[in-house]
Amino acid sequence: MSSDLYDLELLATIGFEGHASNSLIVHPDWNHVLHALGSSIVVQNLRTHKQTFLNGHNNSVSCLAVSPSGKYVASGQVTYMGFKADVILWDFESRSVIKRFSLHKVKVEQVAFSPNEKYLVSLGSQDDRSVVVWDLETKEAICGSAAALASAGLVTCLKYSNKDDDVFITGGDNNLRVWTLDKKNRKIKPEEIDTQKLKRQFLCLEIEPEDQYFYAGTSSGDILKVSLQGENKNLGRFPTKNMFSLGVSSLALLANGNLLAGAGDGTIAEMKPGVKGEIMGRVKSEKVEGGITSIALRSKGHMFFVGTNACNVYKFVYPDLTFETIVTSHTDEVRDICFPSQTSALFVTCSKESIRVWSTETNRELLRIKVANMWCNGVCIKEPGDLIISAWSDKTVKAFAPESGKLCWEIASAHTHEVTAIAVTHNGRKVISGGGEGNVKVWNISNAHKQVFEETLKEHRGAITSIKIKRDDSECISASTDGSCIIWNLESFTRTAMLQANTLFHCVCYHPKEFQVITSGTDRKIGYWEINSNTPIREVDAAAAGNINGMDVGQFSFGANENYVFATCGGDKLVKLWLYNEAIVTHCGKGHSTDILSIKISPDLKYIVSVGADGSILRWKVPANLDSLVDKIHKMSLSAN
């Protein structure tokens, strides 16, 4: 690898970490919205839609908070068993790290700022079970305590007082506590809230602006009203009838005193005091896809944003509660991605139960094709862009219209196991499919009304992971988990060459001039092979850990000596840009928090798009100075020799 390693610029993300509660926040300047995605925090301007990023975590961001003035941002993360999970304090203006706090183990559940930004409180998860108060002036821990009694359940929610820097509240499984900070003696003292006969798991908290009382949403579908003043703490619960299905998972108080409640079934309801004889009764409600995990008010609540565990974000207008979807994303791992060969304006991804078409520039979903209860393992586009052809776990090959999403045709029982790889010839007449049993099959699709089986190519003993076709459609190469890549003649349907290595091949690519192929897989090495001699000519280490899952070669050359670039991704969660001739990494991109499963370079060589096991889609900028960089590295290699 090159010693001078540059960072790949992350241009945009598609996705929303909807499973973390309160991970969608409107900044106090009302012009930015923040949310977590993988190991990054996305800051999006609501007017220009431009995204910037807070990158500093080495694993998934689990919680997020913004200080009342908007000066600070705090975030916590998940890590591995036995390791410390960081809380990072950020400067919002400069988008830089101010301080890392490392006391919690495995996962930080929640973070919250005091009203005057004197303190930050962090709550550990089940492996830690502690609450820690940090001094924002000295950037040191003041004190900590067990978040609940050993006999109590987990503590999952945290809320700071609106007026008092010394008071905050925690709640969880059958426990609800009001904490008071004694900074002088470096202690925090809990007061247990007696819910009497009510046994509840508390999911969210919301405090009244004057700190007179607070609301606590429960998994049972009701909301408790609890006083912060006087002896009688329990002020009752609501609704007593027609409770929220799947629990109350998010709460927000409006400026007029009404309460917004979000439920696990996707219901968002406005609640008003005294309606239907309740402490608060339902006035209006709407329903969205997925359970609600975040409600973020903009200004005084005339507009608010709702995040769900279906990884969607909705924009609501109050008081009508009309809404529109502004962010959509896959909820499960994205297994494949492809661009049309003639344009970089859009791309296609596939995941569980769906294929989606995205606009490259706007990051918006243009089309969603749904197939219930099935996984789509691969996708490709037939020239001139009139069909999206896909490989499915139900052993079928399906073709869809790219504008309407209508099913055009289907090859049932295409393989005896699930279809794991798919490719279409450049003339659009044949589809090559690979199955989990190891067979490669050729189908003639010249007739739109009838798909004709032509031949089965049987030599692999493991699942087919990748298929690439030469530009003249005379040959294709298939990679398999049996440790072999086979080059097939598509006219005589015979094997012309076999490449073997001690690895499970995951990806294979032709050189743009098609006299070589490069391969990679579980051995974390990139192999260069001469097609004519079937022999390896070079092998380089590509990653320190994890498999290499995806690879793509750019089709344009750079520099005076006609060098090419290719991109790789894998279990090390890094996107790497390589020079083909020198086999060195020039740029590296960090942003994913899970395994990266596939990667593609856009046809115009402006973007790299990578997709992850957490459903995230990241778009990177291909460096503009590659010509000069290629020439510089070429001269350095010549002088070294």
Set out the fold topology:
Blueprint: E1 6-7, E2 9-14, E3 24-26, E4 32-37, E5 40-45, E6 51-55, E7 61-66, E8 72-77, E9 84-91, E10 96-105, E11 108-113, E12 119-124, E13 130-135, E14 140-146, E15 155-160, E16 167-172, E17 175-182, E18 187-192, E19 202-207, E20 213-218, E21 223-227, E22 234-238, E23 248-253, E24 259-263, E25 267-273, E26 280-287, E27 292-298, E28 303-308, E29 313-317, E30 322-327, E31 336-338, E32 346-359, E33 365-382, E34 387-392, E35 397-400, E36 407-411, E37 419-424, E38 430-435, E39 440-444, E40 452-457, E41 464-469, E42 475-480, E43 484-489, E44 494-500, E45 505-510, E46 516-521, E47 525-530, E48 535-541, E49 548-553, E50 565-570, E51 574-579, E52 584-590, E53 596-601, E54 607-612, E55 617-621, H1 626-640
Parallel strand pairs: 1-52
Antiparallel strand pairs: 2-55, 3-4, 4-5, 5-6, 7-8, 8-9, 9-10, 11-12, 12-13, 13-14, 15-16, 16-17, 17-18, 19-20, 20-21, 21-22, 23-24, 24-25, 25-26, 27-28, 28-29, 29-30, 31-32, 32-33, 33-34, 34-35, 35-36, 37-38, 38-39, 39-40, 41-42, 42-43, 43-44, 45-46, 46-47, 47-48, 49-50, 50-51, 51-52, 53-54, ...
